[in-house]
Amino acid sequence: MTVDTSHILVDPQSTSREQLYVAATRGRESNRMYAVVEETLEADAHAPDHLRTSIIDALTAVLAREGVERSATEEIQREQDAAASVSTLLPTYEDAVARVYDPDQIGRMEAIVTDVLDAGIADRVVNDEAWTHLASRLSTASRCLG
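Above: the chain sequence. Below: its structure as tokens.
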């Protein structure tokens, strides 16, 4: 809604850039923004340089925060990109290679981890979804050291 004067309290922790845009464009005569900063201003209207910097930092943080939810199409594209990324594919490939060329390595590494760590911790490590990747890395490291 358009008003004569708009006032917005800009909290860098919660205000999104979309909210800032809407509030900053609704006043016919003026739009006032009040930024939440660590320090308060003195009674005079002149802000010291360090306080001006923190006001700019607060507004920069708001402009960096996107408040709009992504569409289903954008989410699907993001997930497809992640599934095809090297950071996803490389651990899977390394795990497959390790299982083909040294299928007993995971069992050996599990025995070592069980011997070295407390039973409860070892159980959590071995049952974690990243265990096969970790076992592969541990096996590689043990070959390099030994």
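Residues 92 and 133 are 8 Å apart (CA to CA).
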